[in-house]
Amino acid sequence: MNETIAFIGAGNMARSLIGGLIADGWNEDALWAADPETTQRQEAQGRWPGMHTTGDGAEAVAHADVVVLAVKPQVLGEVCRALAPAVQSRRPLVVSIAAGVRGDDIERWLGGTLALVRCMPNTPALVGSGATALVANAHVTAEQRDLAESILRAVGLTAWLEDEAQLDAVTALSGSGPAYGFLLIEAMENAGTDLGLPRETARLLALQTVFGAAKLALESDEDAATLRARVTSRGGTTEQALAVLESGGLRDLMLRAMTAARDRSRELADQLGRD
Ligand SMILES: NC(=O)C1=CN([C@@H]2O[C@H](COP(=O)(O)OP(=O)(O)OC[C@H]3O[C@@H](n4cnc5c(N)ncnc54)[C@H](OP(=O)(O)O)[C@@H]3O)[C@@H](O)[C@H]2O)C=CC1
Ligand SMILES: O=C(O)[C@@H]1CCC=N1
User: Rounded to the nearest whole angstrom, what is the distance from the C-alpha of residue 69 to the centroid of ligand 1?
Assistant: First the structure.
């Protein structure tokens, strides 16, 4: 028997988590999704007929052991204020997946101190390959910590943080990171096509190569630099490609990209915290 989880917001990330939980064996009957958007509810209900959907967040909260806040950061304040009476009466574990919204602000909007876990998952959760960093506030019991971890571990890897401020960097790395991977795949596919390969062949080779590199690195005791060196024959082809990427500033570009994402997360926290 699973604990009942209410997702507030049934958008992209909530559906990735719901799909991953169900694929891992979580009971559909123990899942609620609240979203004012009929099409979002229909989409979720169509995929997982055994779960509960509602347009009324308070109805979902009334059944929940865990409430997952999965709306856009910009509307989270308003959504929390509307849910505060239901949350204060039920006192579930609250899990926020929102980027750049501080725990103190969420507690304030929800009407006072609560057990709150902030976390940053990512969309590969849908296929059980998510990566989530979590941080618990002082009101979270050991049992609730285990519960939050069991939910996120069902959809991939988990890592606890001691310092909430580190979630901004996590958002820049693994929260937004799948998009960097998809961009790399797109670029490799397009370049392969430009070099004369059929598009479908280029797509499959690009996908399997990125997947294979990540799988090999995950399963190896060696670091990425060592594995990279093993592909790079002296005087060979890889050396030429890597020289172009290094001289084009790929490492600095990644640092600048992730700094921009990290800074946006901080900016959201500052802006929304004044709400
Ligand atoms: N997408 C990702 O890869 C990741 C997202 N996140 C975080 O997850 C959260 C959701 O992002 P994402 O799934 O991408 O966004 P989406 O816009 O796809 O989903 C949010 C959903 O919440 C709905 N919503 C709006 N108001 C309410 C309300 N009052 N009650 C219930 N639902 C409501 C929205 O409806 P409508 O469209 O009508 O506004 C929408 O369907 C964000 O805070 C984001 O920072 C975290 C990690 C990764
Ligand atoms: O782009 C965003 O703001 C969200 C948070 C991390 C991934 N998507």
Answer: 9
Q: Residue 182 to residues 124, 169, 179, 206, 211: CA-CA distances in angstroms? A: 11, 20, 5, 10, 11
Range(s) within the chain of domains with CATH label 3.40.50.720 = 5-171
What mean pLDDT do residues 93-102 have? 98
Residue intervals of the chain classified under CATH 1.10.3730.10 are: 177-266
* Homologous superfamily in CATH for domain 5-171: NAD(P)-binding Rossmann-like Domain (3.40.50.720)
Q: Give the residue whose CA is nearest to atom 44 of ligand 1.
A: 98
Task: List pLDDT tens digits, range 250-264.
Answer: 999 999 999 999 999
Q: Name the CATH superfamily, with its identifier, for domain 177-266.
A: ProC C-terminal domain-like (1.10.3730.10)
For 107, the 3-state DSSP assignment is helix
Distance CA 35, CA 55 (A): 5
Q: Find the ligand nearest to 131 CA.
A: 1
Per-residue pLDDT for 236 more than 80? yes
What is the per-residue pLDDT across 15-45, written as a single tens digit (0 to 9) for each? 999 999 999 999 999 999 999 999 999 999 9
| Largest separation between any pair of C-alpha atoms in the chain | 69
Strand-pair partners of 34? 8, 54
The Cα 72–Cα 229 span in angstroms is 42
Q: How many whole angstroms from 121 Cα to the centroid of ligand 2?
A: 10
Measure 42 CA to ligand 2 centroid, in angstroms.
Answer: 24
Q: pTM of the prediction?
A: 0.96
Spatial CA neighbour of 84 closest among 99, 94, 97, 74: 94
Stretch 238-253: mean pLDDT: 98
Contacts of 214 (CB under 8 A, 6+ apart): none
